[in-house]
Specification:
Order of helices and strands: HHHHHHHHHHHHHHEEH
Structural class: mainly alpha
Number of strands: 2
Radius of gyration: 26 Å
Number of helices: 15
Largest sheet: 2 strands, antiparallel
Strand content: under 5%
Strand order of the largest sheet: 1-2
Distance between the termini: 72 Å
Oligomer: single chain
Length: 444
């Protein structure tokens, strides 16, 4: 395994023993991640977590003694790897609402916000989602003040504050956008992203892109003297923001139609690698409940980080230092951003349930959806129609030992979530049965 992408400075000899121990811990985390023979156990993760926290404490002491608390070298790169893995492990074992689980989310949000700032186009909804995620993580840190290392909490607060500052900068850029112009602006953002998505299809959809361009022309045709007007013929605030985005959309649609999905050969290997990453993440987003182990996201994160940080002053360059043209640059950046967005979605939608209980949890979610659909469609005509649901619920209920779902002698995390879902399914089944019995009584 290679270090996190960075350009490390010389290592202080006094930090060498810390680096050695962190490398050993990272190797253990990597091996644990790769082991598919059994589910991840909480005590294995917590032991490695404590080892990392111990090294953080020693590192802080050394750097405070030498008055260099903000130094960044290879130790910090390996430490970042360890925290990324531990964070994803906490999600895997169902401890989503504990402080260590926040680390990987802050990394992903930071990347997304950096890219939104660089791209200079985004919708208020994008920022709203990021803000809600940051608020949720802030609450997680508050709950962890009594149970987690102050060194970790300080690190996570600093990362959250960095994200909040980025978010604030982005919100400020849209501050002049009026409510009247917001729907048009959001439509332009949607069209621009749709064109970028079409541009990366295996078979280029020329007609579809032409359709998006026609929509842009229609929006442009509603302008009067180069300005957007509202119903009372007044000029709403935010003209520059919306007009600039419209012009960008039109230019991009022309470039995409001209290139017909063909990227510069010099950047085709990077393009194909990014397409592959996006494809795998897209499949995971569809089959997440049944196939995702959150630690799998680590490898995708690191691949994306390395490609993203291989740019020179923000530009992709070929082997001879020549910059990519606008089409290649925007296409590659779109794929990076889309992949980070998939990772973000997968992390925030992760259930607080250990992977050991996920099969049961997923079955109960399916049962719940089925029972709700039966209820919405008017219920059942006979209690016999509920037999399959009742049998399945009873078989799951019988798996419990003293009210707990056990795996051998272990009690996996997520008992509350699974038991709550089981109780909800029993309640739905009971309501449908009572309703069916009442119907039978009325008919008789």
């Amino acid at each position: 395994m290679t270090d996190s992408p960075s350009f490390p400075i010389a290592l202080d000899p006094k930090e060498q023993h810390i680096l050695d121990r962190l490398l050993a811990t990272r190797d253990k985390l990597s091996l644990l991640k790769q082991d598919r023979s059994t589910y991840i156990k909480s005590h294995d993760v917590l032991d490695l977590y404590e080892q990392v926290i111990e090294q953080v404490h020693l590192l802080n002491i050394i750097r405070e003694e030498h008055d260099k608390p903000l130094e960044q070298n290879r130790v910090d790169n390996v430490l970042d790897d360890c925290f990324q893995l531990i964070s994803l492990f906490f999600l895997t074992i169902g401890r989503n609402n504990e402080a260590p689980a926040v680390y990987s989310m802050t990394s992903t949000i930071r990347r997304l916000l950096d890219h939104l700032k660089e791209a200079a186009f985004y919708s208020p909804k994008d920022l709203e989602s990021a803000g809600q995620a940051l608020d949720s993580m802030q609450e997680t840190l508050k709950r962890g003040e009594e149970s987690h290392s102050p060194h970790l909490l300080k690190l996570l607060r600093n990362r959250l504050n960095t994200c909040r500052q980025l978010l604030s900068d982005l919100q400020l850029s849209l501050a002049d956008l009026s409510l009247e112009l917001t729907p048009t602006y959001e439509r332009l953002v949607s069209i621009l992203r749709s064109i970028s998505a079409a541009n990366t299809r295996q078979k280029f959809p020329s007609g579809e892109v032409q359709g998006f361009q026609d929509q842009l022309r229609e929006i442009q045709a509603t302008m009067v003297d180069g300005k957007f007007l509202v119903e009372n013929k007044t000029t709403p605030a935010g003209q520059n923001v919306a007009t600039e985005l419209l012009n960008r959309c039109l230019k991009w649609s022309e470039i995409v139609l001209e290139r017909q999905g063909e990227i510069d050969e010099r950047f085709k290997p990077t393009y194909e690698k990014l397409c592959s990453i996006r494809s795998h993440l897209e499949k995971l987003s569809i089959t997440q409940a049944w196939s995702l182990r959150e630690t799998d996201l680590y490898d995708y994160q690191r691949q994306l980080d390395r490609i993203d940080e291989s740019r020179v002053n923000g530009n992709f360059e070929d082997a001879f230092g020549n910059k990519a043209d606008l089409h290649a640059q925007r296409t590659l950046l779109y794929l990076i951003r889309r992949s980070y967005a998939y990772i973000y979605t997968l992390i925030i939608s992760s259930e607080p349930v250990s992977e050991a209980l996920l099969p049961v949890f997923n079955q109960l979610q399916t049962l719940r959806r089925c029972l709700l659909e039966v209820k919405r469609s008017g219920g059942v005509s006979s209690t016999r129609e509920l037999y399959p649901y009742s049998m399945k619920l009873n078989s799951i209920d019988n798996m419990r030992v003293d009210g707990k779902f056990m795996v051998g002698a272990d009690i996996p995390e997520g008992q509350g979530s699974v038991n709550s879902l089981l109780a909800e399914c029993f309640d739905l089944n009971y309501e449908l049965r009572i309703e069916a019995e009442d119907n039978d009584s009325s008919e008789s």
